[in-house]
Design brief:
Keywords: DNA-binding. It holds the Pfam family Rrf2. This is Transcriptional regulator. Helix content is 52%, strand content 6%. Helix 1 crosses helix 3, helix 2 crosses helix 3 and helix 5 crosses helix 6. Strands 1-2 form a two-stranded antiparallel sheet. It has a domain of 98 residues: Winged helix-like DNA-binding domain superfamily/Winged helix DNA-binding domain (Arc Repressor Mutant, subunit A, Orthogonal Bundle), CATH 1.10.10. By secondary structure, it is mostly helical.
């Protein structure tokens, strides 16, 4: 299974925010630059993370991006499920439906594998991901506008 680029970026942004002090509140542009992502893509991801309650975005002076307490402790499996959305690993009903779709056991096997993947992520939270040696590397990323 492969994560979408949006999920990958969301996890990197959340991890970057997880290592910052509460006094540090970077802008979306600063975070995007620090994880080497286009600002426009990061802005969409930040909006999604905000709607999921993972981050808070404050405007104006003293504003910026903050990781919420709920986001810090959220199960990684839950977060990835939310970001990836509900869907099968394979497309059985697309523009050219698979001729095996009504009698195929592959779809169920892949669905089980997908859930096992998410279940393997469930015990981890963002806090776990930013422990050493990852945290110091994240802190060393330049934060530029």
């Amino acid at each position: 299974m492969r994560l979408t680029k949006g999920t990958d970026l969301a996890l990197r942004i959340a991890m970057r925010l997880a290592v910052l002090d509460e006094d540090d509140a970077p802008t979306t542009r600063e975070v995007a630059n620090s994880v080497d992502a286009p600002h426009s893509h990061a802005a969409k991801v930040v909006t999604r993370l905000k709607h999921l309650g993972v981050i808070e975005a404050r405007r104006g002076r003293g504003g910026g991006l903050y990781l919420t307490t709920a986001g810090r402790g959220m199960s990684l499996g839950r977060l990835v499920r939310e970001l990836e959305g509900v869907g099968d690993v394979v497309e059985c009903e697309g523009a050219a439906p698979c001729p095996l779709r009504s009698n195929c056991r592959l779809r169920g096997a892949l669905r089980g594998a997908q859930e096992a993947f998410y279940a393997a992520l469930d015990p981890y939270a963002l806090e776990d991901l930013v422990a050493a040696p990852t945290g110091p590397v994240l802190l060393g990323l330049p934060m530029r506008a």
